[in-house]
Sequence to fold (226 residues):
Amino acid sequence: MRINSTLLALLILISFSSCHRYYTSSSFIEKSAKHRTIAILPPQMVVSGSVPKNLSTYDIAQLEERESKMFQEALYNNVLRRGNSGKYVMDVSIQPYSNTLASLEKNNISIRDSWTKDDKELASILGVDAVVRTSIQKERFMSDLASAGIDAGRRILDAVLTKPVLLPGVPNKTNDIRASCTIISNGEALWNDSYARESDYSYTANQIIEQITDNFAKHFPYKRKV
Fold:
């Protein structure tokens, strides 16, 4: 029996996840009762594998910040979609990710600075009741246009990939991804979702980003059935 390509791709994506778990504080309902607005911070990007030698520190910073923005936007979109699906409704507003970035920039806080900035201070600056922190650790940089949409795109692509490929259909193979997502209010973690995954298949960066953030969005709190 032949399996059509759509079904095969779905099966591969499902098998892509290997370990997934999440935690909700026993006092979440009590401590989040007065929450009205939350903000999704730019995710911290960590590359644990070897970095191509011909990439400069500036190139690496561009790649990391580009990927951070991609993850932030995808998480924002998926949380809204999952939280307002017809079955559920969100009990809080999520600050548009573009507003979050603009507020950080206005206060001279770079994407990289936001990764280590005090949570209470960031919540105050952004005018929100809680912040969402995400960390993505992986073996290599993404290798398609999601990461290469920066000034030195083609040169960086050639360095990241094991061999040059034709644009725009650049494949990506990412192994050993570990991701975590945490809601923090007043310095306390009220909810956390984390999992590890391995991929032996080729995915685009957009597929990987969508898969990770959608998994977080599935269990994201602040939503109730209607």
About this structure: Residues 1-18, 145-152, 162-175 have pLDDT under 50 and may be disordered.
